[in-house]
Specification:
The protein has 14 helices and 102 strands. By secondary structure, it is mainly β. Strands 47, 48, 49, 51, 52 and 53 form a 6-stranded antiparallel beta sheet that branches. The N terminus is likely disordered.
Length: about 1450
């Protein structure tokens, strides 16, 4: 019994001993660690804690023996003392301390691997019952062990490593953020400390368990950088977030607030996340084909649209599609149209106005959440009709509407025009009409104006126009309609219908409804006051009866006692009134009276004195403007808020290209914030920005200009690398390959970090870093791995902005020996120099060579949907290849095989698809040889980004030997200079520009090309001065000789030596020299050439190290000819000193074929005599030919007219006076006469008109007209290219100036091509007519018609003669008339009287004899026989009547007339 008590006492002392010698910092840490942080620590222990608990739970040790904590081996032997797991909270801290010390002593990598596998080891604990003696012995051993432990603790107490550790410290604290609902937010921080602190995240002091809610939270810890990502934030995520960092030195916390903003006009309710119980699915929304930043112009129509995919598809379920502008929900109207097709959401803005400018957001709400997309829409001003006019104001609104009063406000435009805006005109229009009435006669400066005089119950719309010195702008968009009515009535109408009232209204005599004089208005005050108007406001009187009241406003100027009623003729119905026409600078008081049918109230209490002046000041200029690079077409502009400004403060931002001095507004609708993203800028241009503020009073002055900002995409963190794969593996290492990120973030990828983790079943370890130093390639050999273990790898890219997210992990691959004999696949495939028909492929050799060294490579290619095919028949030993023969616009993929003596290995990873196209702006490497003969390669790049560099290589290997090549780079131009060009420099030189979209080029230097370059270099080192024109000779006035040449390229130091027959000649009496360096012309003059001047003339040039030489040889015939011409020119000069002929006598034939002799004279005087001679005989003034002589404008002429043989002869003109004599002669005989005839033939032949056809009764006539004809002119007619034989039927001739060919009685044989040949002095001028087809048919038909008409005219019946016009006969006499008749055939004859045919009887005797004579006899004429008679003849060709008049008289009547 005492033994057991002793054992228990020893156990208690042992426990006290275990807790007594903890270090001071352990105890202090106990007080700082809260229960929640401890729970977080326990949860982070993960698998280890759980497994230990399982061991404890499944143990078969009895409760009594369990207290001993003895570890038993496989043979039931006690092997040690087992420390219980999580005995108390302070023991957990002790375990944390021990693990941290192990980290310090054993190293991070080993501890990670040890802890990973040690947690997975199963501990089997068994208890064996022993005898008391054994137990006592073991108890004694434990006491000895406790003593030893106590000594060890004392030793460690002396060797404390507290000086080597330091507590957790936040190098970068998390920053608070404000985001829209539905967006993701990430909090970042960086924590330092040793031992490495463990962190936990809290929301409002509640631990965040990211593993329990992976759909909501993601936590990451890499390289001492920790992050918490909150997905799809909603209102419940608005909280204070805390990160706690804990190590053995203590705990530190940092805080950050996250605020979630909700779009306006929405119900405040928690947004559902994830699973939708109503439909049993989780909706996932994706927005594609998103609309981007858009630009429009006033008056245009714009559509914004996105394709929305909601998965899964549920029958009869559609998401809610909502559109916002600047956070305000849009509703359909005449300006805004919305459409949802089930897949595509479209917003159409009809007739754009500046009010439509802003940030547009599409929000798609589902039962599982929502997704949004936003982009800005900019609206430019419409073109003004007259340059300099202001643009239209915007955002016209109505406020404080009453029965007859409303306040109209608007926003000033961004562009004032050529001069500042002087004011604004407000127009109103009653709804339902088209009549606009101007509300103000004087323009108002304020962007706010009270409109009075409205009719109660009517609706109005308003618009505003701006005015400057150039004129009035377009009107703004009209406001929304506003009703002129009492505000209480409007509120009642908005409230909607109420329940029916069932009460009762009683009227009594004690409660009269009429006859109550209203009380005075109350609470009178000045609502607004400017120098243009004052607005008064008051409350209606309490005592006013049941009828309406009106108001009268009175004013009183301060200093007087006179009150003046303002609105006597127009009482006010609204408790608002605007007073105009007040004297600026004067002070007034105001009061109001109420009025109804019962009378006028007492005046209200008067206002305090108010001075008529502007109360609202212009805003001050905004603060400093800072422009920040954003994208390739936008810049973010921030600026300080305007100080000491009131009400409606907004901003306009303007931009200007550096050096242009032209400012363009970035926004046409003023913005509220102090940050704005300016879009639509030109990439590569430098801009400066300025800002002006605006309120109701007007514009502020401009802010200062920002610093120049280059429009270029800013640098961001790159996207994760792609396609991480294992390409080779051996017993303890693996080769991992990946592809570069699709988005470099605008900066060059500096390298990569590689992580790994082990996989055992479904359990994956934490990610652990492999490399501390950056990997520059896309392949890495991971060493010191464990054989037969599964590994996964991920890669992170690094650029100037930071480290990317981790890539998608590679597939789990076992690390084991690769026993294949052929080489492994090449890796690191990349392409350069993509052109429309070629591309250069580069790769890295395989890490695993197989059973022999790699001896070559094969490249395969395939089109996008084609099959793989080999590029070359023989393998290449190079690790690059230029693939040619590509088709422009096609997409290709490439891969490479390596081979050794055993065979060909497997293919490499396929390259990314490559589109064969030459991008705009692509440059090639240019070979240049400068003036000093230096050979260099030049490559220019216009797409340089920040940090871009030119990388030169030879045969696609980095240049290491700088003794052969020197690289110089300035801006976007790089030059590779050959130091000493030789055969060693042959090869392919390539240049790649980093941090660009694959800008590269190459140039292959061959032996032939090098030889040509060396020749050009020699020419440049020892240059020959080029001549634009070699030496030539020309004659000048007086026979002066000029030798000249022109130099193409020279400097101001160029010198000339003049040499004749190897002797240097200098300027003197005989030679005159000149070298015009502005034109490069070298001249040497000689007055005349002598016999001794025959020889070689030379110009020698010396210009620095350049030389030039040009010569001219003048000997024998060439010299004699030049000398003769020189003497002639000198004689001509002497002749021209007196009267002379500038142009000698010659002849001219006019278009009318008249012959003129003419000559041009010069240096004439009034006394210079002129004489004309023909055949040596002077033409005297009284001769007939003297009339043909003329002189005008220095030209002497002799008009021969139409030339004939009598005009042949020798014509001569002589000039003389005291200065000299000159003559000219023209021989018009024989050859001269024939020359004039030939010219006349030419004029006549060329004047011939086209052949025309004319039909007559005899046949067809072909004719052409000429200006003149005479017998010497040779003319020939042809039919079917054969000369026509003339006969009686076919004849030719001339009538005046008409040449004709007559064809009598034509037949079909006469059809064909006819032509006339007219001799023009040298050849024949031919005019052709094809007398066939329609031309022949019409001509022949007309001939037949005319012929028939002629026959009919000859043979028609007619009265030839014999009949008088009038016959007068006495009554009772007989009348006999005979007419001669002709016709073939013999015509029919008849007589008519007064249009009635006569028949032969006793009174009329009608006869027709011999077919020629027709007679009529009237026996004993009477008065009735008077009338009009006619002899009518008729045959088949026609009818004719011979008319006459018969008049019968009485003798008595005649006697009476005579009397």
């Amino acid at each position: 019994m005492s033994g057991s008590i002793q054992v228990r006492r020893e156990r208690r002392e042992q426990r006290e001993l275990e807790t007594h010698y903890e270090s001071s910092y352990h105890r202090s840490s106990l007080s700082s660690v809260s229960h929640k942080s401890y729970a977080a620590h326990v949860s982070s222990k993960g698998v280890k804690t759980l497994k230990k608990k399982q061991v404890k739970k499944l143990s078969s040790i009895t409760k009594k023996d369990r207290r001993l904590y003895l570890a038993v081996g496989h043979e039931d032997e006690v092997i040690g003392y087992v420390v219980p797991v999580f005995r108390s909270s302070h023991l957990a801290t002790q375990e944390l301390m021990e693990s941290q010390e192990e980290l310090k002593e054993e190293g991070l990598g080993y501890v990670v691997m040890r802890n990973l596998f040690s947690r997975e080891t199963d501990h089997k604990i068994r208890v064996h019952k022993k005898s008391r003696s054994i137990s006592m012995r073991e108890s004694a051993e434990r006491m000895a062990l406790g003593k030893k432990m106590q000594e060890n603790m004392e030793f460690r107490k002396k060797m404390n490593l507290d000086s080597l550790t330091h507590p957790a410290e936040f190098v970068v604290k998390p920053r608070g953020q404000t985001v829209w609902e539905g967006k993701d937010v990430t909090l970042h921080c960086t924590v330092a400390g040793w031992p490495k602190p463990r962190v936990a995240w809290y929301k409002n002091n509640v631990l965040i368990d990211a593993k329990a809610h992976p759909e909501k939270y993601i936590t990451e810890s890499n390289y001492n950088m920790h992050s918490l990502e909150i997905k799809k934030c909603d209102f419940t995520d608005t909280a204070e977030y805390r990160i706690s960092a804990l190590n053995v030195k203590g705990e530190k916390s940092a805080f950050a607030s996250v605020i979630i903003k909700r779009f306006k006009d929405e119900e405040v309710s928690e947004r559902p996340h994830g699973y939708s119980p109503e439909h049993g699915v989780t909706f996932r929304t994706t927005i594609i084909d998103k609309f981007g930043v858009a630009f429009g112009r006033e008056g245009e129509t714009m559509s914004l649209g996105c394709v929305v995919i909601v998965y899964p598809t549920v029958k009869r379920y559609q998401p809610e599609v909502v559109w916002y502008r600047n956070g305000v929900v849009l509703a359909p109207s005449k300006w805004v149209q919305m459409h949802w097709s089930g897949k595509q959401a479209t917003l159409t803005l009809v007739h754009l106005n500046k009010e439509d400018e802003g940030l547009y957001t599409l929000r798609v709400n589902t039962k599982s959440g929502f997704d949004t997309h936003s982009a800005y829409v900019f609206v430019r001003d419409a073109d003004v009709e007259v340059e300099g006019l202001p643009v239209a104001p915007l955002d016209v609104r109505c406020h404080d509407a009453n029965k007859d009063y409303v306040v109209v406000t608007w926003k000033q435009p961004a562009v004032e025009g050529s001069s500042p805006i002087l004011g604004y005109f407000i127009d109103r229009c009653e709804v339902g009409t088209q009549h606009w009435a101007q509300c103000n006669d004087t323009p108002v400066k304020y962007a706010r104006f009270p409109v009075t005089g409205l009719v109660e119950g009517r609706s109005y719309v308003f618009r505003v126009r701006a005015l400057n010195r150039s004129g009035v702008s377009h009107p703004s968009r009209v406001s929304d309609p506003v009703v002129a009515m009492d505000p209480s009535d409007r509120a009642r109408l908005r409230a909607g219908p109420s329940a029916p009232w069932t009460g009762m209204i009683k009227f009594t005599e004690e409660d009269p409804t009429v006859g109550v004089v209203p009380g005075p208005p109350s609470d009178l005050a000045v609502a607004e006051a400017t120098k243009s108007y004052v607005v008064l406001g008051w409350n209606p009187p309490v005592q006013r009866g049941h009828e309406g009241v009106v108001y009268y406003v009175e004013k009183c100027m301060v200093g007087t006692d006179t009150w003046q009623r303002v609105n006597t003729g127009m009482p006010v119905k609204s408790p608002r009134f605007a007073l105009f026409d007040l004297a600026e600078g004067k002070s007034y008081s105001f009061r109001v009276r109420s009025c109804n049918s019962a009378g006028v109230s007492e005046p209200s209490q008067e206002t305090k004195s108010i001075t008529v002046a502007d109360r609202l000041d212009l805003p001050s200029a905004p603060g400093p403007v800072v422009a920040i690079r954003n994208t390739a077409s936008s810049v973010v502009v921030t600026y300080g808020a305007s100080k000491e400004a009131q009400t409606l403060l907004r901003y306009y931002i303007e931009a200007s290209v550096v050096g242009s001095e032209v400012w363009v507004p970035c926004n046409n609708k003023p913005v509220k914030g102090t940050r704005f993203e300016c879009h639509g800028l030109n990439e590569g241009d430098k801009y400066v920005f300025r800002v002006k503020a605006v309120n109701s009073a007007g514009y502020s002055t401009y802010s200062g200009d920002s610093e120049a900002c280059l429009v270029k995409a800013c640098i961001t963190v790159p996207s994760p690398p792609l396609t991480v794969t294992m390409v080779e593996r051996v017993r303890d290492c693996m080769v991992v390959s990946w592809r570069a990120p699709a988005n470099t973030g605008g900066a060059d990828i500096r390298g990569y970090y590689l992580d790994y983790r082990t996989v055992k079943g479904s359990i994956k370890s934490q990610w652990r870093e492999i490399n501390v130093k950056i990997i520059t390639g896309t392949t890495y050999k991971v060493e010191n791995l464990k054989e037969n273990t599964l590994y996964e790898f991920q890669v992170r890219a690094v650029n100037q902005a930071g480290i990317s997210e981790g890539s998608v992990p590679s597939a789990a691959t076992e690390c084991k020996e690769w026993t294949v004999a052929v080489p492994g696949p090449p890796h690191g495939l990349r392409v350069q120099e993509v052109r429309k028909d070629s591309v250069v492929l580069l790769w890295e050799p395989p890490t695993f060579d197989g059973r022999g060294a790699v001896t070559g490579y094969y490249v395969d290619i395939k089109e996008e949907k084609g099959r793989w095919r080999g590029v070359q028949d023989r393998s290449t030993k190079q690790t690059f290849m230029k693939i040619t023969g590509l088709k422009e616009g096609k997409s290709y993929m490439l891969r490479v095989h390596a081979k050794n003596v055993v065979g060909v290995g497997g293919p490499s990873k396929t390259s990314d698809p490559i589109v064969a196209q030459t991008r705009p702006g692509t440059n090639e490497i240019v070979v240049d040889v400068d003036d000093n003969g230096v050979i260099s390669l030049i490559f220019e790049c216009s797409q340089m980004a920040q940090g871009s560099q030119f990388v030169w290589s030879k045969d696609y290997k980095a240049l290491t030997d700088t003794s052969r090549l020197t690289v110089q780079t300035v801006g976007g131009k790089s030059r590779a200079i050959f130091n000493d060009p030789s055969l060693e420099d042959l090869g392919t030189y390539s240049c790649f520009v980093t941090n660009t979209d694959g800008v590269s080029a190459s140039y292959t230097l061959t032996e032939e090309g090098l030889k040509r370059l060396l020749e050009i270099s020699h020419e440049h080192q020892y240059p020959i001065i080029p001549f634009k024109s070699e030496m030539a000779v020309e004659l000048q006035e007086k026979g002066r000789v000029r030798f000249w040449a022109q130099v193409a390229k020279f400097t101001s130091n160029c010198q000339v030596q003049y040499i004749f027959n190897d002797n240097i000649i200098t300027q003197g009496k005989k030679y005159t020299m000149n070298f015009d360096k502005s034109t490069g012309i070298i001249e040497m003059f000689m007055d005349s050439l002598e016999v001794t001047d025959e020889g070689t003339f030379t110009f020698n040039l010396v210009d620095g190290k350049g030389t030039g030489r040009t010569s001219l040889v003048l000997i024998e015939e060439e010299f004699a000819e030049i000398q003769k011409k020189s003497e002639f020119e000198r004689a001509e000069w002497v002749r021209r000193q007196g009267p002379h002929f500038v142009e000698y006598l010659s002849f001219e034939v006019t278009p009318e074929c008249n012959v003129y002799l003419k000559c041009k004279v010069g240096n004439m005087k009034t006394d210079t005599e002129i004489s004309w001679l023909k055949d040596g005989i002077e033409i005297a003034e009284d001769d007939e030919d003297a009339k043909k002589i003329g002189i005008a404008a220095g030209v002497l002429s002799f008009n021969i007219g139409k030339l004939s043989k009598k005009d042949a002869g020798v014509y001569e003109v002589t000039l003389w006076d005291e200065r000299g004599k000159d003559k000219t002669m023209l021989n018009l005989t024989e050859a001269g006469y024939q020359a004039v005839l030939s010219e006349m033939f030419r004029v006549i032949a060329n004047s011939a008109t086209e052949l025309k056809v004319e039909s007559t009764e005899h046949g067809i006539i072909l004719s052409t007209n000429v200006v003149h004809y005479f017998d010497e002119l040779r003319v020939g007619w042809l039919h079917k290219e054969s000369k026509i034989s003339y006969s009686d039927r076919v004849q030719c001739g001339v009538t005046g100036e008409q040449l004709w060919l007559k064809i009598k009685e034509p037949t079909n044989k006469d059809k064909g091509k006819y032509s006339i040949d007219i001799f023009d002095g040298k050849a024949n001028v031919k005019k052709v007519l094809d007398l066939t087809g329609k031309i022949w048919e019409e001509a022949f038909e007309e001939f037949q018609r005319l012929k028939a008409a002629a026959i009919a005219e000859r043979n028609r019946a007619r009265v030839v003669g014999g009949l008088p016009d009038v016959v007068t006969i006495q009554e009772g006499k007989s009348l006999n008339l005979t007419g001669n008749v002709w016709g073939d055939p013999v015509p029919e004859v008849s007589w008519v009287k007064n249009d009635k045919q006569l028949v032969s009887d006793d009174h009329y005797t009608l006869k027709f004899e011999h077919g020629k004579f027709a007679s009529m006899t009237i026996a004993a004429v009477t008065a009735t026989d008077s009338g009009k008679y006619a002899l009518v003849v008729k045959n088949k060709y026609g009818t004719e009547a011979g008319e006459f008049t018969v008049s019968v008289y009485f003798p008595e009547d005649e006697a009476e007339k005579k009397e």
